[in-house]
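Data deposition worksheet. Section B asks for the primary sequence of the deposited chain exactly as it was used as input, without tags or linkers unless they were present during the calculation. Section C holds the resulting structure in token form. Section D is free text for depositor observations; keep each observation to a single sentence. Incomplete worksheets are returned to the depositor.
Section A, Depositor: J.P.
Section B:
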Amino acid sequence: MKPALRVLTTPLCLLTLLACPEQVVVRDIPAVCGDGAVDADEICDDGNNEQLDACTGVCQPARCGDGLTRTDLVLGDEGYEACDDGNSVDSDGCLNSCQLAACGDGVIRTDLPEGHLSFEACDDGNPADDDACRNDCTLARCGDGIVRRDIAEGDPGFEACDDGNDADDDACRNRCEAARCGDGVIGPGEGCDDGNDDPTDDCNGCEPTSCGDGTIQSGEQCDDGNDTDQDRCLNNCANARCGDGIVWAGEEACDDGN
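Section C:
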């Protein structure tokens, strides 16, 4: 409280310099916040009743966290506040720095339900879009169309590719692995893919097996991979023999098939 102002209320005392008689009434006028004078219990007093400037309506300096959003400053000014919710929670809509929460600020909001437009599953505060946390504050996943670069091949979560679609028979598998011959899925340029390395079954090297491919398959006696019909292996993948109607060059003088 500022020192009381003692007012002489007797007209005679106001009009003369004579000493006031004993019956003169002296009245104390209490100090008030907003009168422009800083009193003992005031840190500031700017003489107005404005709550949202540098000196609040209770004659205390404005500060981030007091629950009053300053309106006397513009963005870029020291002390500027975009919000002030008066709490110490840093994971809601207003950060403890009195700035509005935003994806990319490095603080995960926890006050919103999943599905809300501003919901954050993560927030790593960096501009990289190919790590565990996307730039829209969603968790990276296989199928989101972004190839992760923060994981080494062989580690869980590694992506060799990510084409962002549900097709499993294109160049990038649904597990974010590059398609390859032998993965069990018929991909681009493959006539078959049985998922094994057995060269003696119906699919070899991701091509359907056939007589003449050079690999002896089930039902073939031989397969020399050529189209010569006068050698040891006939073009029907049967062994040449006397009586088959084909003259085996260098081995038979004739063969009439009977």
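Section D:
Residues 11-15 form the longest helix (5 residues).
The chain has one helix and four strands.
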